[in-house]
Amino acid sequence: MKTVLLVLPLDWAEVWLVPFAETAPDLRIHVHERDAIAHHEIDYVFTFRPPHGLLKTFPNLKAVFSLGAGVDGVLSDPEYPRHVPLVRFVDETLSREMAQYCVLHVLMHYRMQRTFDAAQAAREWRQALLPKRPQETRIGILGLGEIGTLTAEWLRDMDFAVAGWSRTRKHVRGVESFAGAGELPAFLHRSDILICLLPLTPDTRGILNAKLFAQLPQDAFVINVARGGHLVEADLIAALDSGHLSGAALDVFHTEPLPQASPLWSHPKITVTPHIAAISEPCAAARYVAERIARFERGEKLDNVVDPARGY
Ligand code: NDP
Ligand code: OXD
Predict the structure, then answer these.
(1) What is the predicted pLDDT for the residue at 99?
(2) Active-site annotation holds for 96
(3) What count of other Cβ atoms lies within 10 Å of the Cβ of residue 182?
(4) 63 and 134 co-located in one domain
(5) Are residues 215 and 120 in the same domain?
């Protein structure tokens, strides 16, 4: 019997025990900081943000499974044992929830919902034409991977003019592809709504900064649904207050939970949500892990393995 250690906050770990027991009865599940464990007995770890230095203490560790699509919380451990494969969570339901979040905030902005909310609060019957047709509204998606591609396809199918920026060139029907640092300025100049769906890596940390905002068109709208570390929060507030950007929707933050004192909570042009754009579904994730462990134990290769040098 193989042993999987859940390295999660205790209240989270509780949520995963039943799904693992139901979908993987042949795995022994231990919970870090709850169960007495012999370090040499741990075969696999399931985690999101493990304490730094912990993973290297399991001498027989065969693979680490990330609870989420993003693995920055695991790779931020400077002592991560680099020879151990790290598998990220790639799941259709997760991608669809992320795409829903992006479509929701694109439409809230495009359909001027905040203006109508304000009119309702003032009991005003204030009709207005939409300023542009969707074909004239240019959406730019930073990161055209699993989630970015699905989001681009959904928005394309709603007739928006969609482009994506990635490291390598993409060929997605009806979605313009920009690749590499050299093509970033042209991509930004044509993005009325910018959605960040990049992984957080040394190359992408702080990418949503004053220099980038200055390259967006006047009144651009920003959606950050990737990681708080992508955004320089003070630069966003300055770009909103100067009137260059028209608004932002933020699901992820530099510090989570977002501190009470953060000015983001009450900024009139910012929508805050508490990192809920998508939440890994416990049964699907437990099945995902159990299937991969079974295949790996049969000698098959793992899929969705992260390249630690790239950081995603
Ligand atoms: P993928 O790894 O599938 O896609 C990443 C994309 O980013 C790829 O297109 C990649 O380019 C591109 N990219 C990476 N580095 C660079 C760079 N330096 N320059 C240009 N492009 C770059 O990731 P997912 O789509 O699965 O997930 C994206 C992120 O979404 C996650 O890392 C996570 O942080 C976030 N997330 C947030 C959630 C939430 O609830 N808020 C939930 C789930 C995920 P290329 O294809 O050329 O390699
Ligand atoms: C993820 C997340 O990376 O939920 O999956 O943030």
Answers:
(1) 98
(2) no
(3) 8
(4) no
(5) yes
